[in-house]
Write a structure and sequence with these properties.
Length: 401
């Protein structure tokens, strides 16, 4: 995904058409959903109230609804990452009703061309824009620098600006709880992870999955196959099969489709859902799903904008404690003692009494990375570029997120 596809160009045309329709609506008040569909793309705008827009902050009834746009890296039907974001967008609409108007563009490339999409969103009157993947960081920062009256929110990045904040979820907490289950279910003591892109987020999840498994089974080793994309079901399938062929009998992924779970199901192995509940894709193989709930953050952020209290240059990292991360739909195949351990971990993460990254922790080349009696802080967590003991191989060159 290194350039803007024909699909994305059609989307931009769709955005322009929607802007014309909005202007023709004038001061009328109505509820409608407008969907522009072509053979290549779909751009959807959900409008609860259409009134004459006026620039003011905080928003008032006279100024019309706050226009909010979401850029998605994958299709809304991926069943995982983008699906979770879009469910949160819908929850936001349900919570705030006619105070807001939301829209989204799916399959936006993680490349400089994303800049065109962000500029187009702002050009259509959106004053709050969410970019929902790491690769949007530089394009969004560039646009934010130019369009200081627009508020930008970037998922999983680390660069901010006076009108741009960063938000993330502690997915490693869900990965650890999945690891506890995996450690109690494996027969070969070999786990497999299909990795997307070797950035700290993904490396941190692989390591946490392994640490969780080792907490109940010290003999665990983890194999990793990288696909270098977030959403590519054929590559994810091939990687999953390779891990199974290598002896892994429980799989996890840090990719966006259900392909890994489905491949495990066909092979008679176990796997997890990721980002969203994927039980339905392969019920017999599904052990649990590590899910993200973005709705609390989207609702709080939007309310802050409406109230005029939103601030840029912020970095929010929410997890189990804030209701952003959970492990759900645990299979009946999982033993009661393992379920009880997961419950204990979850309760500890919620009240702060349990810390996943607590020393001593050693890298797979024998170096102590977290000393005994100490806890890794968020700065350390944000820069992880190594595998812990038990994960095979080396991180392929990635050392930043």
């Amino acid at each position: 995904m290194n350039r803007l596809s024909k699909r994305s160009l059609v989307k931009l045309v769709g955005w322009g058409s929607l802007a014309v329709l909005a202007s023709l609506a004038g001061c009328s008040k109505e509820e409608k959903t407008t969907t522009t569909t072509t053979p290549d793309a779909t751009t959807t705008t959900t409008t609860t109230t259409t009134t004459t827009m006026a620039a003011s902050s905080p928003m008032t009834a006279a100024s019309g609804p706050l226009k909010i746009a979401f850029a998605y890296v994958g299709p809304v039907g991926d069943g995982g990452w983008t699906f979770a974001h879009d469910n949160a967008r819908k929850a936001l609409e349900k919570e705030l009703g006619d105070k807001i108007q939301t829209s989204f563009v799916e399959k936006v490339p993680e490349a400089a061309d994303a800049e065109r999409v962000f500029r187009d969103m702002a050009g259509q009157g959106n004053t709050l824009i969410f970019g929902t993947t790491f690769g949007y960081m530089e394009p969004m920062l560039k646009v934010a620098t130019d369009l200081k009256d627009v508020k930008f929110e970037h998922a999983t990045g680390y660069k901010t600006a006076p009108n741009m904040s960063v938000y993330d979820s502690r997915t490693y907490e869900g990965a650890y709880m999945a690891g506890v289950i995996a450690g109690g279910m494996t027969k070969t003591n070999t786990l497999g992870v299909v990795g997307s892109i070797p950035i700290p987020e993904v490396i941190r999840n692989i390591n946490s999955f392994t640490l969780g498994a080792q907490s109940v089974n010290p003999k665990i080793k983890t194999k990793v196959v990288w696909v270098n994309e977030w959403f590519n079901p054929p590559k994810e399938t091939e990687a999953a099969q390779s891990l199974i062929n290598g002896g892994a009998d429980v799989l996890m992924q840090n990719t966006d489709s259900s392909a890994v779970l489905q491949t495990a199901g066909k092979a008679g192995k176990y796997a997890f859902g990721w980002d969203s509940d994927m039980t339905a894709y392969a019920p017999n193989a599904h052990l649990a799903s590590s899910v993200i709930n973005w709705a609390p953050y989207y609702i709080k952020t939007t309310k802050d904008v409406l109230a005029g209290t939103w601030k840029g240059d912020q970095h929010s990292w929410w997890g189990v404690r804030e209701g952003a991360i959970d492990i759900v739909s645990i299979s009946d195949k999982v033993p009661a003692d393992i379920k009880a351990k997961v419950d204990s971990v979850k309760a500890g993460l919620k009240d702060g009494s349990f810390v996943i990254w607590k020393g001593p922790i050693t890298s797979n080349d024998g170096k102590e990375v977290v000393a005994a009696g100490t806890n890794a802080d968020d700065k350390f967590m944000g820069g992880i570029n190594f595998f812990v003991k038990g994960v095979e191989g080396k991180v392929p060159g990635g050392d930043k997120k």
